[in-house]
Every structure is written in C-alpha cells, then in structure tokens.
## 1
Amino acid sequence: MKWCTFIGHKDCPVEIFDKLYYEIEKLILKENVRIFYVGTNGNFDKMIYQVLEKLESKYNITIYVVLAYLNMKKKNIYFNINKTIFPNTLEKTPLRYAINKRNEYMIKKSDYIICFVKNTFSNSYNYLQVAMKNNLEIINLGSYKSNES
C-alpha cells in the first residue's frame, strides 16, 4: 500500500480541481495509493479534501487530516473530525513550528507528493525541495519546474 500527501500555496485557484481529481484518481488506479494525508491550511488543502471525499465514495481509500494544532476554531472546520490525526511528534512542539513539523511528518510518511508550487519564495517551495531530497514521486500542478525535470 502506498501513501500520498500534498503541498501547495494557500491561494490555490479552484480551476485546478479537475486536474487534482484526475491525478489523485490516477494514483489510486495505477499506483495502488490508498492512504492520503492532507493538512488544514488554506484553499489548496480544502480543495484536496473535497476531491478525496468524492474519491472515497468510489474507492477504498483512507483519508487522514493531519492537524498541526489541537485547538482548531470550529468555524474553520470543513473536514470530518473523525478523520483527523495529531502526530505524537507535535505534542511538545512550540506552536510557531507546528505547521512545519506537521508537514515534515506527512512528507516522511509518503511515497507520492501532489503539489501546486508556482514560485521559489514560499514554504510550499521549501517543502517541495524536502520531498525532492527524499526522492519522492512528485506531481506538480503549478508552474514551477525544477532544473532536474
């Protein structure tokens, strides 16, 4: 069984919804990816969760919403709370580092990354670099192309 996580800018455009759906479904069907980690920060994560919920009704997949903080505001919750996990590594992590630690956790657990990275001056780009160093399979729906591509 293989795992996938997602990296993207908070301001991801809704126009990539269909492309996300296609790429995730392709991983399910062709690569036997069955476990998906998704964060909780911004439009990209929200869109990923919506796609995964649609695919969950068709395929036997597991969705883990990985929390960076335990005290989320109820108005921001768009996901099924029963699908959440809180990594042990975050229990003693200062709040200012929680998202970074959470993202590192998801990358380390994954075989595939689907990302939306347009530029080099963002945390999304930094996490894309971490995924590249870990030799993960990367599908980038953004405009950034590495020199290695």
Note: Helices lie at 17-31, 42-56, 95-109, 123-133.
## 2
Amino acid sequence: MPRLYTSFAAFWPFYLREHSKASTRALHYVGTSLVVLIAIAAMVTGRWMWLIALPLAGYFFAWVAHFGVEKNRPATFTYPLWSLAADFRMWALWLSGRLGRELDKAGVPRGR
C-alpha cells in the first residue's frame, strides 16, 4: 500500500526519489517542454484544438520513463495534482540549475 502524503512538502522528496535516474528526469523534461511549447503555440496561433495534445505529450514521455527506465508506478496514479505540480517544479529547477540541491536533500544519489 502506498504511503499517504498529506502535504506537498512531504510529497516532494518522495516525488524526487521516484525520479532517481537521470534518464527518467530527462524524459520528463522532454514531455514537459513539449507541453509548454504546445500551450504557447496554441495561444499564439489561436489553434485551441492543439491543447488536446497536452496530456499525450506530457504523459507519453513520463510513462515511458517510469515503466521502461525507472521500473516504478507513476506517482500521478495516486497523486495526480501534486505530481503535475511537482513535474513543473522539477522542470523549472532543472532549467534554473537548482535541481541538484533538491535531489541531495531528498537523498537521490547523483550520476544515476
């Protein structure tokens, strides 16, 4: 039975540990970047139907990472909103070069 988290602060280190491999995180970055690009393109062009592709772009890469690389169950199955927020937080921290400190605090070994 999965542990029940009652706050995002408690969930965040768990989320990072579930993304312990660099290739898992990289696949998430690809999916999240595509989500952002598709959303921006839809807004700029007014082609709102493109927004239908957001879940496919985001989840495809994440699920390939979890089932194929990390060999674990995506946290989004149990914590969908916190997982979404954590994915964008992880992506933003990676873009800003500040993710390493968070991985260290969560006990995720480097270089995996």
Note: Residues 15-106 form one domain.
## 3
Amino acid sequence: MVLHERTLNVGLGLSCLFWAVAGIMADGWLVVRCSIGALHIVVGLLFLVRAPQVQIGSMDQLLRAVPSLILSGVAFKLRPAEWPFLWSVIFAAGSVGAIVSLMTLGRSFALFPSLRAIVTRGPYRLVRHPVYLFELVMVTACCLASPSWGRCLVLGLASVSLIWRVRAEEALLATSQEYRSYLASTRWRLLPGVW
C-alpha cells in the first residue's frame, strides 16, 4: 500500500470514529442516533484495515458516486426530531443490514469505485450491492418518517443517484474476471426480482 493511501485511510478512519462517538454522546441514546453511530464506527474501523486498491475508478466513475454520498448525507440531516416507532425500527433494521454487509465486505470496503478483492459470501450471495440496498432503506426511513415534498424529492434523487453509483462501480469491477464470474451467479444488483 502506498504511504499516502495508508495515511488517508488512517485519517478517514479516525475521523469517522471521532464523529461517531461525539454524535452518540452529544445526541443521547436514541435508537436512530445509535444506529448511525454504530455504522460510522464500523466504517471508521474498515478504513483502518482496508486492503490496498488494485485499481481506482476513472474520474467519471468517481464523480458519478459523489451525488449518492451527498444525497444520503442530506437525507440523514433531514431526519425528523421525533421518530414514529415503525420508521425508527425500519431505520435500525437498515443500519444492521448495512453493518453486516460492510463487515462481510471487510478489507474490500471503499467509498468510491475501486477494485479490491471481490466478496461473494454472506449478503453478497443474494444481491451484488447489499450495503447500498440497506443505505436506501435508511434514506427511505429518514424521508418518510415525517414526509414532505422536499424529503420525497431527496428520496427520489438519492434513489436515482444510487443507480448511477452502482453502474459506475460495476463498470470498474467488470474489468475483473472474478467479478464477471460473480455476475453470472448473483443476478440482482439491489433488490431480488426487480433490479
């Protein structure tokens, strides 16, 4: 691993860990806040242990991932102060699914399109992008827990941008023979029977 890549990983990992702990401590122990904190802790730890990238995505592929990251962040910021019980349970379930998927991904974790070892076990046997599926569950919960036109617009834009992100990531991953074999065994990208 190149020194600057390792330094970046350590910086990002420690930053995620700091903000996770600070967010939980400042906001209390609400289920949604703890879910976000736990997710950030896992992401922070994965930054610290992730494997070197074999290949990085093109500038176009990297830029196509950015709107998804931004819109998910906007959706999380738009979350209501008071959560209806059902939506808090759906959000927590989405975060547990995302955490399990991220932990299964392990050292192959990346925020932007890059090629590392291909993971085909656990939830990756059912869909090719389970982290994004569960992220979409969380974004949906944020937007529909207290629906408004603005939140519904964010949900729609987040969904479309996630499709762009998946396509950009798959364009890079398809350069790997191992990933092309995985495509033959795992048909669905996000939702079995749909896409």
Note: The first helix runs from residue 3 to 27.
## 4
Amino acid sequence: MNKEELIHMVYRGTHAGSSSTVRIFRRGIEQSPYAEKWLTDDMMYSVYASRLSAVGADQDDPLEKYWKLRRNIMLYDIPERPIEVCGVDAVRLLEKTFCRRISDLPICRARYALVCAPHGGLVMDGVLIRLAEDRFWYVEANGDTSKWFLALSDGLNVTITDPQSRVLQVQGPNSLDFLKAAAPAQVPERFGYFHAGMFIFDGQEVLVSRTGWTGEVGIEIYGHAGLDHGALWDYIFSVGERFGLERSGSASLGLRRIEAGILDYQSDIDLTMTPFDAGLGAFVDLEKDDFVGKQALQAANTGCRLFGYCSERGRVNSGLEILDNGRRVGITKSSCWSPTLEKGIGYVVFDHAADEGDNWVGKRLTLCDVEGDHHACEIVTLPFFDKEKKIPKSLPIEDSA
C-alpha cells in the first residue's frame, strides 16, 4: 500500500468504518483550549466524548508521525473527559459501580476499570486515578458516565463533578526523559506504569499519569479549569524542542492503538457485549461484594468473541464480514493498515464464542474486503505484537516489531 492510499484510509475513516466526511455545526461540541495553537482551515475532526478531536490536516503525513511516535516522541491533544468523584462515600459508590475492586487502589495510582449495566453489558471502560483517600478521577472514553454515577449515588455522601480537564498525551520512547526535563527533580525514582502524581510545569500544577493510548511508553498531562493552557502548551514545546517534539492528530495514534490491541468504546465494544465477550474478563472480580451487573456476569458465557485478524492482501475496514466456508461468522471492527507488520489488521467480533474444545485463534477464514473481494485472513490474539506489553512498561524486549 502506498502513502496516498494510507492517508486516504486514515483521513476518510476507513479504520473507523466510514468512507465519507460531512460538515457539522459545532454548537454544543467543545473545542480544545489548545486549539489556537494548532488550528488550521483544513483540519479534519471527529466528535469524541462530546468534544472535537483533531484527526489531521491534508498536508499531514500520518505514516511519518507514526514512526516518530514509535521511535522518538509525539504529543496528542486528546478529547477524553475525566470525571471527579469525591466524598466520604466515594469508595462505596465506585465499588458499587465498577466490576473490579477499588478500595485497595493506592493513592497516586491508576487502574483500568469497567462499568457494566444490570444485564452485564459494557456501559463504559476507562482509567480510574486515585488522587486522595476520598477523591478520584475516572477518565472515561466516548460516553457519559457522570450520569451513571449520579444515578447510583442516591443516599451517598459524594459529589460528581466535571474538572474541565483536557488531556495532552506525550507518547513515545523518550517521553519519560521529556517528563524529567519538564519537571526537574520531581519525578519519583519509581514512577512505573499506571502511576500518577502532581507535578509543577513552569509554575503550574498538573496531574501526570504513566498511561496512554498507544502501546508505547508515555505520559498523560491533565489540565484543569484554572489553568493557563496557552502557557502550558508553550512550556511543553519549549522543553520538547530538544527532543524534536511535534504535535499530531489522532490519525497516527489510531494506527498504533489498533496494533496495541487497545479497544475503543462504541467503535469496538458497547452495551451489547459483556466484558467476557470483549476479552476483558480479567478486569471482572466476581469475588468482590455486589456491584451492578454481578449477577448477570455470574451467569454469563465466559467465552471470548473479540479477536484480532490479519490480512496480507485485503483492503480492511470496519463492518466487513468474516466468512467460514462461505457462512458469515463475524464482523470487523476498528481496522487499519499496520505500518510495522505491513499488512491489514483489525478486530473481529464473532457472532458467538468458540465452541467448547475449539478456538477461533489460528483459524484461517475469509474476509470480504472493501472492494467485495474475498481474501484469506488469520485470527490472532491481541495485541498484534508485544504480547506481554513490555513496551509501555519500559521493560527490555528482544523484538518490539
């Protein structure tokens, strides 16, 4: 696949299942407080968490940005929306809401956590950060979990608020060196994967977590309502100059997150799927006290329906049928051309979990691609490489693809 085809796929939504773009009226949709720093007339957006998210501009090269992310450092202005849960009953509310235990989460640590409905379907996935004994931020994906928290908080001494935080992700193998330069003498000796803390960036306090959406080493920088966003942006890039820091739209990030097996709520998982369907059963603790959806999950089929697929030749997309001997058995979700593997990859959700004693993994099935042509595809486990996720943990790895 040549560069022009890749750019067309990324900017025209092939990885997300759409083949066209539309113009919209922005009323009710938030723009980034950093937008004046990078806004151009030809910028293309998507809407995520009721916020505009910059995909990229026509002159951008997502492949070039992708390799800078993998080899150096990149900055992304991310629309994910943190929700603050605070009060003496905050832990009680969160234990009731989430499928995994919350009370043992240490202060200044983060934890991936799922919210389920009474029938066991996924309401939301995101990262929970504990800032104090009774104060948490839940960084949700594309949804509105704040109303879910409010509905479950009746009778509890807790407040649910919007800290008006916009997230900047600095991702890539040099991101921790950047943090040490941006916050001199502030980074703890052990600032591991899913750790968090408050840091002073040029006189302004920000929350920083060792998390991200790329499968690379990275940090996320959380602003707040009282922040001078312009000054923070300028400071980040003044420090980042020595690292060759650049900003990218979400196009290059999207390529890498699919390779890393990171799922997107609504695009890949939704209310119709249980955590087991999505391969997220490890984040469900059926031994903890009652939580919303527990009874349904106890009775649910624990077989997985979501896997990866690879196609050497087919033009991949979301919404394509996967066939077994001519019979549809699943449909593709987020998909892309992998620059690292040099093949089409993506997620497939099968119509049913593999039968007992059988397994989807390793099977060679048929993909009906965007042109309507049939091509062989192989079903694989996620992520597509770095299976043990050593890269974001800064662990030695012999082959990071």
Note: The longest strand covers residues 327-338.
